[in-house]
Amino acid sequence: MKLSVVMPVYNEINTIETIIDKVIKVDIGSLEKEIIIIDDGSTDGTRAFLKTIHHPIIKVIFHEKNSGKAASINTSRQYITGDIVIIQDADLEYDPEEYPKLLKPIKDGKADVVYGSRFIGSEPHRVLYFWHYVGNKFLTLFSNMLTNLNLTDMETCYKMIRAPLFRSIEIESSGFGIEPEITAKLAKLPGRRIYEVGISYWGRNYSEGKKITWKDGASAIYYILKFALWRPEGELIKKLESESSVSVDIIRSKNEKD
Predict the structure, then answer these.
(1) Contacting residues for 63 by C-beta, under 8 A, at least 6 apart
(2) What is the pLDDT of residue 12?
(3) Which of 50, 104, 123, 221 is 20 to 30 A from 66, comparing alpha carbons?
(4) Measured between alpha carbons, how far is 52 from 211 in angstroms, rounded to an integer?
(5) How many CB atoms lie within 10 A of CB 156?
């Protein structure tokens, strides 16, 4: 089996070398590893640094202009060759040392998707902004109300997904709308087994390069509403049947009733 690490990057010259090194070195047992880096039009020297990388497990793709995190993740799908996918931000807020913990429910055959929650467990968390915490909790609650899930951290970057399922999701949002979109679309696929595990979180402040703002929170509300109405169509069912070992009979039955 192979783990594909998808890393969207935009202006992360201060952390990009360190995070790549961490991903390369993390021990995930017998699994192979590939790193797919998508530079989203960086202008701070990140792009020049990435052009110097020559490593057998790293693929680097360049966007000519900044298009947002969702666009970068969408671009990555055509380059993925692994069996399991995880999204990894290029800053140092999320620690690749958590990979084994996220992998375990999938390797044990219990999960198809694992979320790394910043709000459960006993791992260390940096204390930062109260209103960011409130915003995250509200967006997760609102998402849960419309998806009928009981997640504690919908907005987490760490979403580990079986590759056939990941490739089946057509990304339509832009920017940070990717988090509610993936969640809503996974929730609409009955039979998908979603787990959460507690992870550490080494958050950064705005002087250290944090990019998300209240505007991203407002757009997340829009995307939660939009994708709560999404449902899997016939072509997606066929694709899942051909690629996934998980039965899609429940999905077909639901669509036939609709």
Answers:
(1) 38, 39, 40, 41, 71, 72, 75
(2) 94
(3) 221
(4) 26
(5) 22
Nearest CA to 4 out of 182, 155, 162 is that of 162
Task: Name the residue ranges covered by the structural domains of the chain.
Answer: 2-257
Distance of CA 28 to the CA centre of its chain: 18
Distance CA 175, CA 173 (A): 7
Question: Is the dihedral angle over the CA atoms 235, 236, 237, 240 positive or is it negative?
Answer: positive
Asked if pLDDT for residue 255 goes beyond 60, the answer is no
pLDDT per residue as tens digits for the range 156-211 = 999 999 999 998 888 888 766 888 899 999 988 877 899 999 999 866 554 555 55
Can you give the length of the chain in residues?
258
Burial 34-70 (b: 16+ CB within 10 A, else e): bbbbbbbbbeeebbebbeeeeeeebbbbebeeebbbb
What is the reported pTM?
0.81
Single-letter amino acid, residue 60: V
Q: How many helices (H) and strands (E) does the chain have?
A: 10, 7
Task: Provide the pairing of β-strand 84-87 with 2-9.
Answer: parallel
